[in-house]
Design a protein that fits this description.
With 127 residues, the chain is mainly alpha-helical. It has 4 helices and no strands. α2 (31-96) packs antiparallel against α3 and α3 crosses α4.
């Protein structure tokens, strides 16, 4: 809720409390009952405004956390791509040195099919 809207709501509520107090006194309610009711309404209004402020702060904090999570996901994705790429590059280098399927699966973490494909693609080719 914007500050202007909160201020407007507070002013309207204050006017409503004043009007209610005047109405209750003019209807011959005991002054202490009217004052107690006005005080209760003021406390309720203050609580509502406080809740609005807390809600806005929570929204802001949630947005900041969402941004941090998005950055962490992006970082993790980049790291996984780097690890995956470096694993393939290591497999290519080992293949050029004559490594077999077992070495590629055990050393580079490749699946058996990937370990068989790499030599077909890169064995004997220049870097």
């Amino acid at each position: 809720m914007s500050a202007t809207l909160i201020a407007g709501t507070a002013a309207l509520a204050a006017l409503a409390i004043a009007a209610l107090t005047i109405a209750l006194v003019s209807w011959r309610w005991p002054r202490h009952a009217a004052a107690a009711l006005a005080d209760a309404l003021a406390v309720a209004l203050e609580g509502a405004l406080s809740a609005e402020t807390q809600q806005a702060e929570l929204r802001e904090a949630l947005g900041a956390l969402r941004g941090r999570l998005d950055r962490m996901i992006l970082t993790q994705s980049r790291m996984e791509q780097t690890v995956e790429t470096s694993g393939y590059q290591a497999a290519i280098d080992l293949t050029r040195e004559g490594a077999d399927d077992d070495v590629l699966t055990n050393t580079c973490g490749l699946a058996r099919g990937e370990a068989r494909l790499i030599p077909n693609l890169y064995q004997g080719h220049a870097h």
